[in-house]
Design a protein that fits this description.
The chain is an alpha+beta fold. Helices cover 28% and strands 49% of the residues.
Length: 148
């Protein structure tokens, strides 16, 4: 009989405007075959917001400022033959403040790059993250309109 473990993670949709259009930092894993948003486990005593900022920086080489909570996705997977994991990941819309994608941590991910928002939505490997990206696109447009 399988045991069930609950895991909590946080991540970010890190954005910046380029020529008036939103671009997003994506990461590649699994030998560059899976494109996704940066995310990772909450460390002891860490808030989801702190974890999101840390994970984004580790996995993309970029520092961001949180603009808003984009909600939590959840999914199930098997960690091994006897352990089911129920994972909850809270994502935040973030504005890029500094850094360079060339400075990603190669022990964490295979690549990090900036892509236009529409391409990020098309390229993201997981449907739940495509949904997060669509929500981020709307939120980013609201934030940019409010600054105008």
């Amino acid at each position: 009989m399988a045991t069930t473990r609950i895991e909590r993670s946080a991540g970010g949709v890190l954005c910046q405007n380029r020529a008036g259009s939103p671009w997003v930092a994506l990461i590649a894993t699994r030998g560059g075959t899976r494109w996704q948003l940066p995310k990772g486990w909450l460390e002891e005593g860490e808030t989801p917001q702190e974890a999101a900022r840390r994970e984004v920086q580790e996995e993309t080489g970029l520092r961001g400022r949180i603009l808003e909570d984009l909600g939590t996705i959840e999914y199930w997977f098997y960690a091994d033959r006897t352990t089911r994991v129920h994972k909850f990941v809270t994502f935040y819309l973030m504005a890029c403040e500094s850094g360079d994608v060339a400075d990603f941590d190669p022990t964490e991910v295979d690549a990090a790059l900036w892509v236009p928002m529409e391409e990020a939505i098309a390229r993201a490997s997981l449907a739940s993250e495509r949904d997060v990206l669509r929500k981020a696109q709307e939120a980013w447009q609201r934030h940019m309109a409010a600054q105008s």
